[in-house]
Automatic annotation (TrEMBL), chain A:
InterPro entries (UniProt xref): Bact_StressResp_Reg, STAS_dom, STAS_dom_sf
Residue stretches making up the STAS domain: 1-112
Pfam families from the UniProt entry: STAS (PF01740)
Protein's organism: Filobacillus milosensis
UniProt cross-references to PROSITE patterns, sorted A to Z: STAS
SUPFAM superfamilies, per the entry: SpoIIaa-like
UniProt-recorded name of the protein: STAS domain-containing protein
UniProtKB/TrEMBL annotation, chain B:
Pfam families referenced in this protein's UniProt entry, alphabetically: HATPase_c
CDD domains in UniProt: HATPase_RsbT-like
Stretches assigned to the Histidine kinase/HSP90-like ATPase domain: 35-133
Source species of the chain: Filobacillus milosensis
Name of the molecule in the record: Anti-sigma regulatory factor
Domain of life: Bacteria
C-alpha cells in the first residue's frame, strides 16, 4: 500500500488514511524523501487525523522522516494527532520532542509558513 | 462471549496489524473506551512486533477475564524464540538491541494494568491485562 503525497505550491500534503503497518510506514518514508527531492518542496504537512494507533516502531519511522527531510532542507509538521494516540505515545514514553505539530491541516500550513519565513 | 478465546498466529509482518485489530475489536466489544482501546491495541502491537522481530513466529491470544474488575481483557503473547537474556535490562526505558526506541516493554507495562513475563531458552511468554473501570 502506498500513501498518496500531493504537491501544493512549495508544500507537500499527506493525509494518512490507512492503518499503518511497518512496511507501509517505511515505504512512506522513502516516497516522501523522493518526492521532496523531485519537487524541491520546502515544507510538508502530514495529517494523522485518521490514524488510530502509533506504536514505538511507527513513532520512530515518523520521527526519523522529520530528521531526514530536515537534512534535505524541508520542514515537516504533523497534524491531527488524536487524543487517544497522544495519550498512548506519552504512556509509551515517546515524546517526539523534535517534531513540530499542529491541531489540524489549516494550523499546520500556518505553522509551516511561519517557520519557513523565520529562516 | 464470556471466556471466548481468540488466537492470532504471528508469522509475518502484517500479522502485527491483524493482532492489534483483533484486540481492539474485542476491547471495544467488552466496553472499553477509545483511549483504552488505543492503549490495548498499541500494547498488542509492541508484543506482536517483538515476536516477529526476535522469535520469528509465535502467537497472541485474547481472553475475557474477571478479577480485580468484573470485566478485563487478558492478552498472552508467546513464542518459542531464544528468550530474553536480560529481563531487567529489557524493562529499562531506552534499551534496545534492534535499533528501536527501547520504549516497547516498559511502555507496554505502563499502558496495561497487569504485566507478567516469563522467559527462558525455550521461549518467552508475556501476559498482560487491562481492567474495565
Amino acid at each position: 500500500m502506498r500513501i498518496p503525497i500531493l504537491k501544493l505550491q512549495n508544500y507537500l500534503l499527506v493525509s494518512v488514511q490507512i492503518e499503518l503497518d511497518d512496511q507501509t510506514a517505511m515505504q512512506f518514508q522513502e516516497d516522501l524523501l523522493n518526492k521532496i527531492h523531485s519537487t524541491g518542496a520546502t515544507g510538508v504537512v502530514v495529517d494523522l487525523t485518521s490514524v488510530e494507533i502509533i506504536d514505538s516502531f511507527i513513532a520512530k519511522v515518523l520521527g526519523d522522516v522529520v530528521s531526514m527531510a530536515e537534512l534535505m532542507g524541508a520542514k515537516v509538521v504533523f497534524t491531527g494527532i488524536q487524543p487517544a494516540v497522544s495519550m498512548t505515545l506519552i504512556d509509551l514514553g515517546i515524546h517526539l520532542q523534535n517534531v513540530q505539530t499542529a491541531l489540524d491541516l489549516e494550523q499546520g500550513l500556518i505553522k509551516l509558513k511561519q517557520e519557513l519565513e523565520e529562516k | 462471549m464470556k471466556g471466548a478465546l481468540t488466537n492470532v498466529p504471528i508469522t509475518k509482518e502484517w500479522d502485527i496489524v491483524g493482532a492489534r485489530q483483533s484486540g481492539r475489536n474485542m476491547a471495544r466489544d467488552l466496553g472499553f473506551g477509545s483511549v483504552d482501546q488505543a492503549r490495548i491495541a498499541t500494547a498488542i502491537s509492541e508484543l506482536a512486533r517483538n515476536i516477529y522481530l526476535y522469535a520469528g513466529s509465535g502467537e497472541v491470544s485474547f481472553e475475557e477475564v474477571q478479577g480485580e474488575a468484573p470485566v478485563g481483557i487478558k492478552i498472552i503473547a508467546s513464542d518459542n524464540g531464544p528468550g530474553i537474556k536480560d529481563i531487567t535490562k529489557v524493562m529499562e526505558d531506552g534499551y534496545s538491541t534492534s535499533g528501536g526506541l527501547g520504549a516497547g516493554l516498559p511502555g507496554v507495562k505502563r499502558l496495561m494494568d497487569d504485566f507478567d513475563m516469563e522467559s527462558n531458552e525455550e521461549g518467552t511468554k508475556i501476559t498482560i491485562v487491562k481492567w474495565l473501570r
